[in-house]
Amino acid sequence: MLKLHLIGDFQELEAGWxxxxxxxxxxxxxxxxxIEIHKNPEKDKLTISFDGKKGLIEYTSKxxxxxxxxxxxxxxxxxxxxxxxxxxxxxxxxxxxDASRNAVLNVDGMKQxxxxxxxxxxNLVMLYTEDTYEVKEYPYFGYLRGRxxxxxxxxxxxxxxxxxxxxxxxxxxxxxxxNALKYEYVNxxxxxxxxxxxxxTRTYEFLENLIKSATEPFRSNRIxxxxxxxxxxxxxxxxxKNGIRDSFTIMNEHLEKIIGITKKYGLEAMMWSDMYxxxxxxxxxxxxxxxxxxxxxxxxxxxxxMVFWDYYHEDEKVYDVFFRKHKEMKKKVVFAxxxxxxxxxxxxxxxxxxxxxxxxxxxxxxxxxEVFATLWGDDGGETPILSALPGLQLFADxxxxxxxxxxxxxxxxxxxTNYSLKEFMLLNDFDETPGVMENNLNTSAASKFLLWQxxxxxxxxxxxxxxxLGDHYQNLANQLKEILSKxxxxxxxxxxxxxxxxxxxxxxxxxxxxxxAYDAENKEALKNEVEQIKTLQLSLNELRIAHRNVWMAYNxxxxxxxxxxxxxxxxxxxxxxxxxxxxxxxxxxxxxxxLKEKKLPFSNPYYLGEGTLGRGLYKDMVTxxxxxGV
Length: 630
What we know:
Layout: E1 2-7, H1 14-24, E2 26-28, E3 33-39, E4 46-50, E5 55-59, H2 62-78, E6 82-86, E7 92-98, H3 107-120, E8 124-128, H4 150-162, E9 166-170, E10 190-192, E11 195-196, H5 201-215, E12 222-224, H6 237-242, H7 247-264, E13 268-272, H8 274-279, H9 295-300, E14 305-309, H10 316-327, E15 333-338, H11 349-365, E16 370-375, H12 389-400, H13 406-417, H14 421-425, H15 446-452, H16 461-464, H17 469-481, H18 491-507, H19 510-519, H20 523-554, H21 560-585, H22 593-596, H23 618-622
Parallel strand pairs: 1-2, 1-3, 3-5, 7-8, 7-16, 8-9, 12-13, 13-14, 14-15, 15-16
Antiparallel strand pairs: 4-5, 4-6, 10-11
Helix pairs in contact: 3-4, 5-7, 10-11, 11-12, 17-18, 18-20, 19-20, 20-21
């Protein structure tokens, strides 16, 4: 434990210091290394130094102090003397945590993420909760979904505050409310299955209760009111009541009502900007360079900040265009990038890094003062949230530096996590496989579809045949095994990914091998595959347990039932495959209909493109049949 003696006004830092001292492995002691601390809010440069006897930290805010302290410790381990300067390129820089797609970070999981954020100097955490927060007036709101209680939200906000991090509630007040609107208590305020009925008095009583409940536990007077991807706005019950009306008008009328509520509670609101651009596009595309929002519509938009989200483009000039177009809306512009934790079962660092570099470079050039990285959990939150750490390191470093030196970033990352960046980047190889373009820019998700696809139906078998993915994953498993001995707060993460690689080394080409052996009437080969499948059943259950361990370490238990069902389905289908092949080998079946069928390449234009093997949702991977519904 390194002893340090801080000289200067320590009062506002003391609580945060106590929270982080174990993480930083330091203690405050008068006999320790003396470090002068100076707070200078007007100073453009953030400074750390050490002359061999005495240290210096010049900071501007609590969050910058904890970043600088972390950098001071990193430099002290390396050098006898040093002097380093940085600057804050943005007033606010942070992350958005998705707590709406089954994986809801538990309080300890949030604190762990906040600790890493403090090391990086991030000062904003957006808590995205569609229905996963307590609203006492509506017991079914977030029922059995792991919703945060008022007390839990206050505890997380208190913790974040001591680290200099603002926690902002992010909710939905128009669309993305399917889970909240599926119960009887909201009958009469639904336009479509996931969009509220604009113009209805009861709708605004409902939304006011949501806004009040979502904001009460937090110090911040800011709120993100959502409003993105409301594709069916005005097309359901609304149209039956009001006829066909201009989408811009409906949007502005609803937004005016919501802003009236937020102002009533003294709140500053921000919203996703996409629906305005979709309405202005002939194709309904958010990123349509020809999209035009009429001047009269812009003049009618209430007082709200516009959040431009883009984690898709690698060309800085594209961001330049959209920042310019957003500024034409005469509102403060906030930028939301993303760390691709929603690609499938594993993170996509290549896409994340390239989009982050381009997006933040443009944000600096266009004088954007506030940025954050989204950590979405699409389709069940399969990817553990702390797999985002390399992306967050890059996002933070670019927030404090003009450019990032990859070697320096790698060294600092190891200081922050006890893992080298190279070790973490192994997770990128789950989806950047043979057959995939460099950096996986078109977001191939082989690890997900190969994990869940059926061994007999093999929807992706024709796509992956001949690529040698079994060998690829075996090599990855060997590399991950070498780093399993480390025991720290991330060890569960790597145990999960190691077993995933082991499973995929067998399962990736299982369907291809079965089909090849069946077509060749090679019964000996089929017998061998039966034994492989039996072993695979056991490995899948080991993987389920490892995945559950990492889930329960960071998340509430609610939502895990969905992944239990997915694993249960995969294991059960292994049993069916064994029985079907054995029945064929024993003469009980004349043929295996599933293997007799000619296999076609996976076909879905939305998920396919150059340099990718495809991606998709679970329901599209396990069966071409109807998984649920009438």
